[in-house]
Amino acid sequence: MLEPAQKCALKVVYTPTAASTGFNEYKLSVIGNYTNSNNLTASIISELSRPYSALGAANVLGLSAESFNIIAKINTTESRNLVVTNSSPFDVTLGTLALNPTSSVTGLTINGVPASGNRCMDNSVLSNGSSCNIVVKYDAPATAIAATSANLVIPVTKIGTTTAPANTKREANITVRAVTNFAPANIQVVITPPSPLPSGVSAAGLNTYSILGLPGNSLKLTYKFTAETGKGDAASFNVSSAGLPVGAQIISTGTTCPTDVAVTSLNASQSCEVVVEAPRASLVVNGLLTNSQINIKLPYSWQDVNSTGVPQFNKLDATEQIINVTTDWLNNLSVIATKDFSIIGDLATTTITAKFNNTVAGSGVTFPLIVYSSIAGNLSTNAQCFIQKGLTSCELNLSIPAIMPNATYYVDTIITDSSTQPRTYRKSVSVTKK
């Protein structure tokens, strides 16, 4: 009971368990019962509404943008405006505005001289729903630079009259880049083979090479990509391995361009390189590569930058090289039947000759070479001959029973070298029995 002129205090405690967005209002109702002068009982109700919130640090301030991407032509200035809004039901006091790290982006400043406008300043107080502006300015240097970034940090020191928890802040990421020209970029590509060509590799025409598919034989082509001088810069430049056939691969040694998911800025006059190897050594060693033509298509893409400093649509191009891989581990080898079957007694005999048209491919070949011929179905006697080092051919006689019908028979010839892991060449020729 309160006597006339007496007072009492009521304390409301709110203990949130998690942050929320926005705020609510609670209504406090105080009901007083009294007896009037006519000895009648009556009541009076007094109501008071107050805001309450469990705002997390990120909900205290709203930003008009979470990030900025500023692209400026060299020796020019570009500015952006960030609007900071107090989204809490309380007054909010800002701390010292800063870039972090402070030295990461040369030419990037915030606010400068607050000549006009509702600038956010150090220790500014924002009432509920009010806003202020932060001007982000980038003075581009005299030479083009790749994209660099820093965070604009907006600390909060007080929420209402209460000191804000440590590290209460909002951040906006700012990425800047200086370009030489807003004109479209032009990417020039020069493809260079090693000089001299490695063993087992020969030129076979413009942008075409032939490779003898022996272990250790491969061709490494260097692709040099250059953004043409006097043209625009290439943003988000990338070289993709997606267009490469299974027989070719990008190798890391000598490769300086970004590949696959990585990107970089290739400014006018700048270059980078990619090294492509074919055929893959693992395919040759394991005998998985057949006679083939490897068409190397190496796609590359970039974005031009328009006059407002915004990267435009992706541009895509590709280069093409042709590599003929001869996976016969013997070069210039032919297998022929030098005569048809002739009847001698109970046998019909033919002569098979394995011959090099020029010389034996010396790389990786271990002598003697074993030449073995047979006819499928066990119709023939088995026969073999040997090609010794320094020789270019050998002959063998292959026989079938003379009573076999007159027909065309297929002779399967296998040539194997004498290495610890023998490699085999197989060829079939036809011989007629009349």
Mean pLDDT: 80
What class do helices, strands and sheet pairing give? mainly beta
Strand content: over 45%
Biggest beta sheet summary: 7 strands, mixed
Distance between the termini: 134 Å
Q: Count the strands?
A: 30
* Stretches with pLDDT under 50, minimum 5 residues: 358-363
CA-based gyration radius: 42 Å
Helical run tally:
2
Helix content: under 10%
Approximate shape: elongated
Quickly describe the structure:
The protein is an all-beta fold and 434 residues long.
Descriptive account of the structure:
The chain is mainly beta. The protein has two helices and 30 strands. The chain has helices at residues 57-60, 281-285, and strands spanning 24-35, 41-52, 61-63, 67-73, 77-86, 92-94, 98-100, 108-110, 125-126, 131-139, 145-159, 162-163, 169-179, 187-192, 201-203, 208-212, 219-227, 234-239, 249-251, 264-266, 271-278, 292-305, 311-326, 333-344, 347-356, 369-375, 383-387, 393-401, 408-416, 424-432. Strands 4, 6, 7, 9, 11, 12 and 13 form a seven-stranded mixed sheet that branches. The protein has a six-stranded mixed sheet with strand order 15-16-23-22-18-20, with no helix packed on it. Strands 3-5-10-8 form a four-stranded antiparallel sheet.
How would you describe this structure in keywords?
434 residues, 6-stranded mixed β-sheet, 7-stranded mixed β-sheet
Indicate the topology.
Blueprint: E1 24-35, E2 41-52, H1 57-60, E3 61-63, E4 67-73, E5 77-86, E6 92-94, E7 98-100, E8 108-110, E9 125-126, E10 131-139, E11 145-159, E12 162-163, E13 169-179, E14 187-192, E15 201-203, E16 208-212, E17 219-227, E18 234-239, E19 249-251, E20 264-266, E21 271-278, H2 281-285, E22 292-305, E23 311-326, E24 333-344, E25 347-356, E26 369-375, E27 383-387, E28 393-401, E29 408-416, E30 424-432
Parallel strand pairs: 4-13, 16-23
Antiparallel strand pairs: 1-2, 3-5, 5-10, 6-9, 6-11, 7-11, 8-10, 11-12, 11-13, 14-17, 15-16, 17-21, 18-20, 18-22, 19-21, 22-23, 24-25, 25-28, 26-27, 26-29, 29-30
